[in-house]
Design a protein that fits this description.
2 domains, four-stranded antiparallel β-sheet
Length: about 170
């Protein structure tokens, strides 16, 4: 009989405890929803596209990157080969070829500006040169470029290319 009474009291106590917890959590939920701000109105697809386009156009460096860029040193012949001497050449700048990749969804850019950094064997910056590539960069595309520099440092060991910025195409 003692066991029966103990079980009965435990069941009643358990039921009362659960009822108090549920009523408390419902009150908390009502207080939270009453004081919360109204949910935002869903935006139309046109509004979402306009926001995305504006976001991309405000920071072109996030969406544009240079692909592999190659440098081809150029030489000009200053003296022809003769019977007793070889031909002589002097440096005549370099041709840079590469690509610019766009990961933008809607942003269209033009005239990207790149910076070429020349480094020595000890990885010291020797010189930097900036160039504007007069091309349109379409969304989600790869655009090839090529340009010639008049000079470059002869003591360079390697170079790096950075995309500095671009204008928004209208």
């Amino acid at each position: 009989m003692k066991l029966f009474i103990t079980l009965l009291l435990s069941a009643i106590l358990f039921t009362l405890t659960n009822c108090e917890t549920n009523s408390h959590s419902n009150n908390f939920r009502d207080e939270f929803t009453e004081g919360s701000p109204e949910p935002e109105i869903e935006k139309s697809p046109e509004e979402l596209r306009a926001e995305l386009k504006a976001s991309e156009e405000n920071s072109p460096e996030k969406y544009l990157s240079c692909g592999e860029v190659r440098m081809s040193p150029q030489q000009v012949q200053t003296r022809s080969a003769g019977l007793f001497h070889d031909a002589e050449y002097e440096p005549d700048g370099a041709i840079f070829r590469g690509t610019i990749n766009s990961s933008a969804t809607l942003g269209r850019f033009k005239d990207p500006k790149i910076k070429i950094l020349f480094y020595s064997r000890t990885n010291t910056l020797i010189e930097e040169q900036s160039y504007v590539i007069y091309e349109y960069i379409e969304p989600r595309s790869t655009t090839s470029f090529s340009f010639k520099t008049e000079s470059y440092p002869q003591a360079y060991e390697n170079f790096r290319v950075q995309l500095v910025g671009a204008s928004v195409a209208e």
